[in-house]
Amino acid sequence: MSDEERERHRSSDWFEGEGVNGFIHRSWMKNQGHPDRMFNGRPVIGICQTFSDLTPCNGHFREIAEFVKRGVYEAGGLPVEFPVMSLGETIVRPTTMLYRNLVSMDVEESIRANPLDGVVLLCGCDKTTPALLMGAASVDLPTIVVSGGPMLTGRMRGRPLGSGTDVFRLSEEVRAGSMSVAEFRRSESCMSRSAGHCNTMGTASTMASIVESLGLGLPGNAALPAVDSRRRVLAHDSGRRVVELVREGVRMSDIVTRQAIENAVIVNAALAGSTNAIVHLLALAGRLDIPLELAELDHIAAGIPAIVDVQPSGRFLMEDFFEAGGIPAVMQVLRDALHGDALTVVGTVRERAALAERWDDEVVRDLDRPVVPAPTLAVLHGNLAPDGAVIKASAASPELLVHTGPAVVFESMDDLERRYVTGDGITVDSVLVLRGAGPRGYPGMPELGNLPLPPHLLRQGVRDMVRISDARMSGTAFGTVVLHVAPEAAVGGPLGLVREGDLIALDVPARRLELLVDAEELERRRATATSAEIEDGGGYAALYRAHVTQADTGADFDFLRGRRGSEVHGDNH
Ligand code: FES
Ligand code: MG
C-alpha cells in the first residue's frame, strides 16, 4: 500500500511510527500472518467477544464473530477479536449484577488501550449488553452492536414454553402440588432447545430491543432468532457498516443522545420490557453525561401501553415477535411518539420506521388495542421509597395495583423459608417485604424480588401477592412486585424501619408507596436502628460496596460515570 492509499486512523498512532515502538507494534501483529497493508492504514475493528462455555446464551458467538469479520474485510478493515469477562445469568453467583460494572471496566480499558478505530459489541445474555454498552460509551469510538438473538421456541406436549417465565410458573405449580417433580424436570430440556438467549421479553430480549431502538444495531437485530441464517447476514452487514462508521466519523455519542434514550424508554414501555432495563439505561446515560432522572422514565413513556404480546406480560415468544416484524414494526406503530430525527447506525429513526413491515397485528398491536393498558412500568415514590421504586404494572394483578396490607418482613431468603414452614400470620392481604437485597446490602442487588408465595396460600389457589424489596427481579418474572426501593435498607433507607404488621399502601395509579407509620415513630425507630454489619472479605466485593451507587442512578460505580474518551498517553516501551 502506498502512503497515499494509507488511511489515517486512531490505530495509525500504533502502526505508523518509526523507531522501537512502531517496530514492536507492527512486528508482533505480523506474527499472526497479517501483511503490513492489512492493519497499517485501514480501519482496525475490535470485536468485543463475550463467548464463554459458562454463558450458554452466548455460546454461538465464536461463529457470529466470523461473520462480523467477513463484513469488516469486505469493507476494507481489519477485524480483531478480543475477549472480555462474560456473565452467564443462569450460573454466576451470587448475581451477575455484582459484575456488570467490572465487565464494563474490562471493556472500557480493553478498547482504549488497544489500536482500535471502531468496535462491534457481541452482546447476548442479560448483563453482557449493559456492561458492554457502558464500557464502550466511556471510550466513545464508532460502535455497533450485534446481539445474540433469542432461542427458538421451546415446546412441551404441544404447548410453547417461555424461558424463565414458565420456570417460575411451573415451580409454583410444583409447590402447590399440581405438578410432579418428574414432569418439572422433563420441562428443562423442552425449554432450551437452541443457542441464544431467553425467548421471552426478559432482560436479554429487552436489552437487545433497547440496542435496536437506541439505534446501535441494524434493523432486526433484537428479535432475529440466534440460529437463523439471517442473523449471520446481519452480523456480516454490521461488520461492514462499522468500517463505514469509522470513515464517516460517527461516534457512539452521536447515536446515543438524550433523544435516543427517550426513544428506548418509549419502546421499552411498549414492550412491557424488563425492569432491569431501567437500571441499565440510567447507568448508560450516566456514562454519556446525559442527565436522566428515574422519575422522568415514567413521564417519557406516559400513556404508552404494552403493544407487544410476548411473555411475561403477554402470550407469545420472541420467534413469533420476529415473524410479526420485530422492533422495526414496533417503531412504526410508535412513530408519532418517537424522536424521528434521532440518528441510528443506518439512517434516522423516521427512515427506519417508514421501511418497517408488520406481518401480524395480534403480536404487535395497534396503540388503541393494547395487550395491557399504560403504564407498563411505573416509578413510585413515597415515605417508603424517597428516591423511588419501580413496578412492572403490566405483569401485576390489576386488583392488587391499589392495595393496603400488613407487612410481613424477611431479612433474608433463609428467613423467608423458615417463616413459610408454618406460614403463621401470613394472609392473602399481607405485603411481603424483603430487605437487605439492594446494591450494597447483598451485594449486587440480586433478582430475588419476585419472592415465592407461601405454600399454604398457593394450595388455596393464591397466585399473586404484593411484594416489596430493594432487590431486582428477572425480566421474565411476573406478579405485583415493587422493586429497586431506594435508598436501600443497607444504607439506612426506610425499608429497614418497617416492622411486622405495619400497614403499607401501594397505589400505582397515584405512583405512591407509603408506610402508614407516622414520622415521629419512624424517627424513634431510626434512632435505635442498628445497621447490619456487612462482612468485609476484601477483594472486588469490597471495591463494589465502597463505590456502588443506588438503583435510582443506575447502580454504577461513582468513579465510572462520564466519558473518558479514547485518548491514551504514554508509550509502552
Ligand atoms: Fe441468558 Fe436469560 S439466562 S438471557
Ligand atoms: Mg434474566
Automatic annotation (TrEMBL):
UniProt keyword annotation of Iron-sulfur present: yes
Residue stretches making up the Dihydroxy-acid/6-phosphogluconate dehydratase C-terminal domain: 362-555
Any single Pfam family the record assigns to this protein: ILV_EDD_C
Listed SUPFAM superfamilies: IlvD/EDD N-terminal domain-like, LeuD/IlvD-like
One example GO MF annotation: hydro-lyase activity
Domain called Dihydroxy-acid/6-phosphogluconate dehydratase N-terminal: residue spans: 42-348
This protein's UniProt keywords: 2Fe-2S, Amino-acid biosynthesis, Branched-chain amino acid biosynthesis, Iron, Iron-sulfur, Lyase, Metal-binding
Any single GO BP term: branched-chain amino acid biosynthetic process
Family matches, as PANTHER family: HYPOTHETICAL DIHYDROXY-ACID DEHYDRATASE (EUROFUNG)-RELATED, HYPOTHETICAL DIHYDROXYACID DEHYDRATASE (EUROFUNG)-RELATED
Record family assignment: Belongs to the IlvD/Edd family.
Stated name of the protein: Dihydroxy-acid dehydratase
